[in-house]
Structure formats: C-alpha cells, structure tokens
Amino acid sequence: MDFLNELNANQREAVANTEGPALVIAGAGSGKTRVLTYRIANLLSKGIPAYKILALTFTNKAAREMQKRISQLVGSENAANLWMGTFHSIFSKILRFEAEKLGYTSNFTIYDTQDSKNLIKAIIKDLKLDDKTYKPNDVLGRISMAKNNLITAQAYAQSSRITTADAAARKPMIAEIYKHYQMRCRQSDTMDFDDLLLQTNILFRDFPEILDKYQQKFNYILVDEYQDTNYSQYLIIKKLSERHHNLCVVGDDAQSIYSFRGARIENILNFRNDYPDYRLFKLEQNYRSTTTIVEAANSIINKNKEQIPKRVFSENEEGEKIKILRALSDKEEGFQVTNEIFKLANYEQQEYCDFAILYRTNAQSRILEEALRKRNIPYKIYGGQSFYQRKEIKDLLAYFRLAVNQNDEEALKRIINYPKRGIGDTTVDRVREIALQHRVSIWTVLCNLDKVTGNFNAPTITKLNNFRLLIEKFTGRVSEDNAYDIAVYIAQTSGIVDDLSVDSTPEGISRKENIQELLNAIKDFSETAYKEGANEKLPAFLEGVALLTDQDSEKAEDNNKVTLMTIHAAKGLEFPNVFMTGIEEELFPAQQSTSTPSALEEERRLFYVALTRAEKRVVISYANSRYRNGQIVPTRPSRFISEIDPHYVEGFISPRNESSGFRLKTPVSTHKPTISLTKPPVTDIPELDRSRLKQIEPGQVIPGMIIFHPTFGTGKVIALEGLGVNKKAKVLFTKEGNKTLLLKFAKIYTQED
C-alpha cells in the first residue's frame, strides 16, 4: 500500500488502524478529508467489498471529491459500490427501499425549505391564526428542532414541558400546526429534510429486522464532521454500528458552530463514554496557515473549557502578524477594508479571488458591497440565491415534481395557474377546503370533480379538468422517456417557454436563459446516466436537485471576485487573505450569546473558525459606531480581539482617525497609497445647475450630452449602444468614473436651456 507513504505519522496511524471505534480529532487545516479518503482506500485494498462501507458527509461536494480520490488510489471499479454521500441522500435511498413499511410510496417527494414554508403558511391561514404571531420561519424552526430531537407531532402535543413553553411564548397553537403539517405531508406523500432522519429512526425502531439487515450490511462506518451531527443523526449512527463496532468519526470540537441547526458538541465530547474501547488519533499539524495565524488561533480557543485538549502547530513560514483595523463608523470600515484589498491586489499582484470578507450576520454585507462597488472591485456573495431557488427554475421543477407525484400539494399549488389559465386563488382555496374536509389530496379532488359539481360553475370545472389532463399527459411519459426528453416536452407543452419569450427585457431574457441552462443540466444528467448504466429518468434527477446543499450549488465560473460570506458559511473553505469585519461587542459575540458560558464558547469557536480560514494574512476590523435598528449607536471592540496573544498582533488605524486603541510598535498609514491609487476626479465636465434640471426620455439621450444621475452625479455621455428597450448609454461620471446605464430604467436629467 504505497499510498500510505503519502501521509504523515499521525495520519498514517489513523488510516492503518481500521478495527473498532476510532475518534480522529482533526485540527483546522490538518488533512481530515485526506485521512477519511485514505482510510476507505485502505479498507478496499484489504479486500473489504465497497458495498460493506458506509461513509457519511455533510455535502455532496465532499462526497464527490472523496469518491474521485479513492478511485485514483484503488481504481474506479473497486470504489464504484461505496455507500457514500450526505446523511440525507443515503437515508433517503434506504427509505425508498423501505417506504411502504412506513406508509409512503417509493416515489415520495422531498420538500425543500421553501416548500415547507409555503405549506406552513397555508396551514396558518387555514387555522385562521395571526401570521405575525406565528411567523412561518419561526414555526418551521420549532418543528425542525423537534424532529431533530425525535419528537413527533403526537409527542410534541403530549409534552407539557414543550406546550407550556409555547404558551409562555404566546404561541400555544404550534402543536396543532405541527399536527396538520405532518398530516398534509402524509397526504401529499412527501417528506421534508428532517423527516429523512426522523423516519429512518422510526424505521429502525419499529422494524428491528430492517435495522438488523443494515447492521449486517455495513461492516465499516465512517462519519465526517462528527461535531456537526444532531441527536437524530447521532442515534442512527449509534444503531447502525452496534453489530460490528467499526465506527470511525472525524471532526474537531473546536469547530462546532451549528447548535442553531441542532448540532450537539456533546456527540464528539462524549464519544469516549459511548465507546469505552475507542482509540483516539489527533491530527495537529496545520498545513494551511502560517505559524502566526495558527498560534493566534490557539491562544483564542484555549480560553474554552469544554474541549478535547490538543496543540495545533504549523511548520509553514512565520508570516505577517494579524492586523487590527479601527474605523470611526461602519461606512468607514467598508472604505478601509476595500482600500486594503485594492492596495494588496495592485501592489502584490494578487487576484481578487484570493480575498474573503467574513462577517457575523448577513445584514453587514450591504455597506461592504457598496464600498466594493465604488472601488469597482468585483465580488460575489457566497451562499446567495442559488440557481435552483430562482422563480422560473422552481416553477418548471414544480411541473416535473407533479408529473412524478400527483399528490405533491406544494408543487400543484405553485403551477395550477401558471402560466395563467383562469384558475384563481378563490377556486384553489375551495379545492383545498374540499380536500381537507374529505382528508384527501388536492389531486384526488381534481380527479373527482363530477362528485363535487355543486361547488364550481361549468367554466371553472372545464379549466380544472384541462389542467388535470395536461398533468396526466406528462405523467404518462415519465416512466418511458429519459429525463431530458420529458423535461423539454414539459417546458414546451406547459407554456412556460412561451410565457417567458414574451418578456424581452434583460430580466426576461435572463429568465429564459436560466430555463435553458436547467435543460442543459438535465441533458448532461441523462447522457451521463446512460453512459454509466444508471437511472436516467426524471425522478432520479429530481432527487439529486432536492438533496443539493448551498456549497454544492456554487459555480466554478465565479472566478476572479472577492468572496463575501458569513463565518458560518465559510467553514470548510480557505483563502490566502481573510478580512474579519464588524468584530464588536453585541455583534460578535452576538448579544444573545453572552448570557450562558456554553453560548459564549460557541461564539469563540466561531471566531476560531474565521481565523483559521486564512492561509497568509488576517485583517480584523471594527467600528466605533454602527447603523443599527434605524439609528447610529456607539460600539466597542469585541472581547475576542483582546484574547488574542498580543505577540501575534499589530494594529493600524484609519487615515481619518488620530489615534488607535492599540499601542503600535510600527504604525502603518494607508493615507498615501490611497491617494496614489484612487482614480483622479474628472475635471473637464462642467457642473449642471441643479435648480434647472429636467428629466429626459431615453430617446433624447445623445453622445456628448452632459447629464445628471441621482446616484452617480454629473457625467458626460460617451457612446450609445443597443436598440429599443435594450438601449444603453456609456457615461463618464465626474466622481464615479465610467458606468453603463440601461436607459429604460435609468433616471437621467439635463439642464433646461
């Protein structure tokens, strides 16, 4: 096994010892994925059949990368039958095999978060509850937390502790909403993401012979990111590993940051109690970061009491000290951060994709985005709206889902009147009421309109029947055609393509292009599946889409751009340069997280995760004031800044400040570079008299004209391009430089004669 020689001593030990329970504590940047991959390759090289190995990850991307590397190490044939994937993808596969035992069909639909939210909204409306008291997001979060702790709707309603807490929060009807939610999911033959784990636990609990079958099947179980598992996942792992005890979990308690999703740090901390005969392996060499960054991170995380002791080290260069940047305001902070990025990109010839700006909450991104736009620095929001969350994509996917599963209520409601076919909300509400009264699905009502004719007039019945016949056309081809052929047929026959073709605006064109991109993806799926002898039908494609995670949907073509993201979203990623922004008390640590020691320790772990994303450079920034809740409030630096060993820190200040909160050995000024690198203002464009401005139409704009724009100020029209609604003007603005305006939407003024 030559590939073992590619590992360091600790990694090799963790890979070679394959029998019995094992806990691999992997510090940041220590090669945990490498250990998991090589451990599986080692098992295969020993002759263990691939189908006897279960490997669980948290993203499809991680599973794909591991599968690819394992194939390179031991050959694709040996790795082909591994049970490797996310918790949800693996257990949805098991549930489809065993669905009938739980009262589902094998074609059950998987609801994404938006589908679940829409259903919760409908139930709140049906129960005539106040949607300001019962906010769908909050209710869904409460139900999700219950499911992750294996609390069914019935158990929820019977728990005096839970219902008393809901009543105290003035939300006594959550138990009733939960009951209706589960009932409607059952009627629709659907499961949400949490159900995939809850129902697996129920399956193993109520059918011991099924549990026994899978215990025998999986001789070796490996789990990635064990510190992120919730109670439901923990219990499934524990049950499956009871027969052979060959369980290897990999993780880092110092990076447990998802308690708000139900993750339990106790799972990794108490592993030694669950498996007394376990072996502990520590991966402590960080290959990612400089020595300075690693030691600074250690000095922070060592303040936590609840942890597994380890000493992460690096043999990389010492590197730069961590810089602390203070600004007068949040707006000034945005200016400072983008100024530093601009300098580094130009002075050191670094790519913009080498920079990440991290923040504690999404709300912080707005000012940072504005500052980047003013500097003309390209950026992307990591974890922004996914391709598969765009309206036109969800519309077409809803047609696909309904073609596969006619009882999918959320899909049906989404497209019953799109494109418009004269079926209004009142009609849909009445159909739903009838379905609820008879405890059947909406589709069942549509198939039996002759029995409820008193509820609808003849034209309405005709429209409803036409919709049903349209869906039945699609249903009839689902099992015959490959995914691509039926997808193209549905896109054209449903009227979606024609509806989008009418809109010739840039947004409309973009939406039509998105539909084409979806069809391209399905074509690629069908061709790949055909070549590999896999399932090339539409239900298989839908399952893959339903199980996508945020990280999986990031596109490779988002190339040379600064990345903006929350620290939670940054976990698992790395960048040469990391800017940690808004590091202030009540923001980071969050105000609500300072009330208990455990919550504060999680905030400290989050800070540790942010620091250890960096390879070469870390800049930490904070502001003296911040615009919050409609007013400017004074702020103070986070306690976490002072917790960093000062040996690894140096400060520098805003050029508009006179002093810093830090004693500096070598103060650094950004004033001169800012002046030399900033584009000089354009001086040969005359200013307009603001009192004599008048708005002009797109057709009146001509090259050479001096104009005023409410956002960009005074500028000169350099050139025009495009025709009609797509007509654009290239304008050189006095302060903002070159901009291209779509004249249909731009408000443009010129001076009256």
Describe the structure.
With 753 residues, the chain is an alpha/beta fold. The protein has five domains: 3-101 and 200-283, Rossmann fold; 109-188, Orthogonal Bundle (Arc Repressor Mutant, subunit A), CATH 1.10.10; 313-384 and 558-650, Rossmann fold (3-Layer(aba) Sandwich), CATH 3.40.50.300; 387-547, PCRA, domain 4 (Orthogonal Bundle); 693-751, SH3 type barrels (Roll), CATH 2.30.30. The longest helix is centred in the C-terminal third of the chain and has 27 residues, at 506-532. The strands form six sheets. Strands 11-12-10-13-14-9-17 form a seven-stranded parallel β-sheet. The protein has a six-stranded parallel β-sheet with strand order 3-2-6-7-1-8. Helix 6 packs across helix 7 (136-148). Helices cover 45% and strands 15% of the residues. The protein contains 31 helices and 23 strands. The protein starts with 8 loop residues before the first helix and ends with a strand.
